[in-house]
Design brief:
The complex is a heterodimer of chains A (253) and B (427).
Chain A lengths: L3 E12 L2 E12 L3 E5 L6 H7 L10 E9 L2 E2 L7 H7 E4 L10 H12 L5 H14 L3 H4 L12 H13 L5 E5 L7 H14 L4 E5 L3 H7 L2 E6 L2 E7 H6 L4 H7 L5
Parallel strand pairs in A: 3-8, 3-9, 6-7, 7-8
Antiparallel strand pairs in A: 1-2, 1-4, 4-5, 9-10
Helix pairs in contact in A: 3-4, 3-6, 4-6, 6-7
Chain B lengths: L1 H47 L4 E10 L15 H6 L3 H9 L8 H8 L6 H11 L7 E7 L2 H7 L16 H12 L3 E5 L1 H5 L12 H32 L4 H15 L2 H15 L7 H25 L3 H9 L4 H30 L2 H5 L20 H9 L5 H32 L3
Antiparallel strand pairs in B: 1-2, 1-3
Helix pairs in contact in B: 1-17, 9-12, 9-14, 10-12, 11-12, 12-14, 13-14, 14-17, 16-17
The chains are: A alpha/beta (253), B mainly alpha (427).
């Protein structure tokens, strides 16, 4: 049994009148990949966006319940959201590099948090982050070129480098491969395998094969409820709920 | 079977024909609009270009008659020269063109071939060349407006004499001067440098160009930062509720308020309540800022809205504060759009006349303003002023001023296009 990094307790989320999540309770283990699967609109993206409070941006979104990271409630009034997001990085569905150079994309986070002491420190962080994101070799000669000029897969790895540049504990990935081709997807999956030695990774995915390949635990969401969460092998070979069974065998979703 | 095919072909032909007709309508509409623009430009250009050169008459001025030794001028200060009595001396220099004239009336007619400031022009020549004045110097004096117009062929010489401002004897003098090769054209630099004047040949747009530039500067300084900050707040930070909806509606309404209303506001509040100096570019700029603000706010908000939300999310997700996300990532992307909006707003302000009439920028101002606090005209108001003047010389000057105004507007719109292109292709 690994130690528990994140624990959600009776989480309810509302968008205005509409309730998007119902009493979700689950935990995620440290330095493991946890996959969240389920049909479109089931609330898995909403759930993952609660983990770094990205939902705060949406005016009408209301969160009830508790999420603890290392035992601290991130919705406690004393929690500063900027500090939280420094510890919980995020990679989005569509690659969204800043319209700046590759270097600036990665240097931005360390710079605003004051992580680098001086310029050479910053350069080191950028290079290390790019290396960890398996992008450095491809871009080392053109760090000053536009980040938006890279290919889709490279852009997504640039976003991963940007996320790990501030040295977070946790990386959230919201369908990171849905806009990528199979080769780029394979690279990202490979990368996740390397990253999980250092980071706790939560990934939302539509692809059940992907969940099966990369994760150690998988949660299945349906209509805003967490139907089932268990070891990945168990979910895919012997699910305890009929709805999970139906979903993974392709009967709906 | 063949019937059906025939039917299809018929209906297809119908559709293609209607497409052809539609295309003809479109081209027709475009040609119509373009033709009017061309007519406008041709009309203005053809009546305005002649204002950019002027008629001068060559006069030999015997400075030895003014002073015993012309080298003495070099020791005189400008003030000394100003104190010299030169009026009758100058007149005599002009009489030398036609030494045979005896009658006083004819002499007067001869003098009237020249601009009223002939004495001043000789004095200025003396001042700027005082160190090496010869016994006799050849000076090009400005011809009067009537002579200028006759020389340019804008004046009907075949009218009856009592219907003309220029008299037969003056035409005789003029033709003789032309035959002797003393009448020539030169580039009309005074037109670009001087302020307004009651004498058409001496009136220039310099004062109104500077006045317009000062006004636009005030507009830029006031409305650019205010507009940008208001737009950023409304678009990025303001909560979406009834109050902000109300503000938004009113900003849009403000953009549609007739400009003369802003002039009344300026008259009532800025001049009468706050007591700022009348007729100045400062007040004009403040009033036009009110008019330009909504344009800038609307354009900036539109370009902020066009920035994909994913950029904001990317910045927030690495722990940027809301302000950092907006200032570091959203605003730079939106800036070309905001600048374009600002320049278009400024171009509108540059061409605006009505509010300036109400705050007194319609005054007759001879001096070129030195600061935004000096009384001044502006280009569109100058057009308005000259278009009502009777003298023929003002007709070409009106058109020439419109040309200048259009030139500035084209330059500004070009700048907007260039800025947009430069920053958009960067990434």
């Amino acid at each position: 049994m690994k130690s528990i990094k994140i624990k959600a307790d009776n989480l309810n989320v509302y968008y205005g009148e509409k309730q998007a999540l119902f009493d979700v309770s689950m935990y995620m283990e440290e330095k493991q990949v946890t996959a969240l699967i389920g049909p479109s609109g089931c609330g898995k993206s909403t759930f993952i966006r609660c983990l770094n409070r990205m939902n705060d941006v949406i005016d009408i979104c209301k969160v009830q319940g508790k999420i603890e990271i290392d035992g601290n409630n991130i919705y406690a009034p004393s929690m500063q959201v900027e500090q939280l997001r420094e510890r919980v990085g995020m990679v989005f569905q569509k690659p969204n590099p800043f319209p700046k150079s590759i270097f600036e994309n990665v240097a931005y986070g360390p710079r605003i948090h004051g992580i680098a002491e001086n310029k050479s420190d910053l350069e080191e962080i950028v290079v290390n982050s790019l290396k960890k994101a398996a992008l450095f070799d491809e871009v080392k000669d053109r760090l000053n070129d536009a980040g938006t000029g890279l290919s889709g897969g490279q852009q997504q790895r640039l976003c991963i480098a940007r996320a790990i540049s501030v040295n977070p504990d946790i990386i959230l990935m919201d369908e990171p491969c849905s806009a990528l081709d199979p080769i780029a997807t394979a690279r990202i999956e490979e990368l996740m395998g390397e990253l999980k030695t250092e980071y706790t990774i939560i990934i939302v995915t539509h692809s059940m094969q992907q969940a099966a390949r990369v994760s150690s635990r998988t949660g299945f969401f349906h209509l805003g409820k967490l139907v089932e969460v268990d070891k990945t092998e168990t979910i895919f070979s012997n699910p305890s709920d009929q709805r999970t069974q139906d979903y993974i065998t392709g009967r709906f979703g | 079977m063949t019937d059906r095919i025939e039917q299809r072909i018929n209906s297809l032909n119908k559709r293609l024909n209607s497409e052809k007709r539609f295309r003809i309508y479109c081209i027709g509409a475009m040609s119509f609009a373009l033709a009017w623009v061309l007519i406008l430009f041709l009309n203005i250009f053809s009546s305005g270009y002649s204002a950019f050169y002027r008629t001068v008459i060559q006069v030999d001025v015997p400075f030895l008659n003014l002073i015993e030794d012309t080298t003495q001028f070099s020791e005189m200060s400008s003030e000394d020269i100003n104190n010299l009595s030169m009026y009758s001396f100058s007149k005599k220099a002009i009489y030398r063109l036609f030494p045979d004239i005896e009658e006083k009336k004819d002499k007067k007619m001869l003098i009237r071939l020249f601009s009223i400031e002939f004495e001043q022009e000789i004095r200025e020549f003396l001042k700027s060349n005082k160190s090496n004045i010869n016994e006799t110097e050849t000076i090009y004096l400005t011809a009067s407006d009537d002579v200028d117009q006759v020389n340019k062929g804008n004046y009907p010489r075949d009218l009856d004499e009592d219907k003309r401002r220029i008299k037969d004897i003056q035409l005789l003098f003029f033709d003789d001067l032309v035959d002797r090769g003393l009448v020539s054209y030169e580039f009309n630099l005074p037109f670009l440098m001087r302020g307004d004047s009651r004498e058409p040949e001496l009136a220039g747009v310099g004062g109104s160009i500077v006045g317009s530039l000062f006004t636009i500067l005030v507009v830029l300084i006031l409305s650019f930062p205010i507009g940008i900050f208001a737009a950023i707040y409304l678009e990025e930070f303001a909560p979406k509720n009834k109050v902000t909806d109300f503000i938004e509606i009113n900003i849009n309404n403000l953009a549609a308020v007739p400009s003369i209303v802003f002039g009344l506001l300026g008259l009532g509040i800025i001049l009468n309540t706050f007591g700022l100096p009348r007729s100045t570019p400062l007040v004009g700029g403040i009033v036009l800022s009110l008019m330009t603000l909504p344009t800038i706010i609307i354009a900036t908000r539109a370009s902020l809205r066009a920035v994909p939300p994913s950029i904001r999310e990317g910045a927030l997700a690495v722990g940027a504060t809301k302000m950092q996300a907006v200032m570091h990532h959203v605003v730079p992307v939106a800036m070309p759009g905001a600048l374009t909006g600002t320049i278009i707003g400024l171009a509108q302000a540059l061409g605006e006349t009505a509010p300036l009439l109400l705050i007194g920028m319609v005054a007759f101002v001879v001096d070129v303003p030195q600061t935004p606090l000096d009384a001044s005209a502006s280009l569109p108001v100058q057009v308005y002023l000259w278009s009502e003047s009777a003298e023929r010389g003002y007709v070409e000057k009106t058109s020439a001023t419109i040309m200048m105004l259009l030139g500035f507007l084209i330059l500004m719109n070009l700048a907007a296009v260039l800025i947009r292109r430069k920053f958009e292709t960067k990434w």
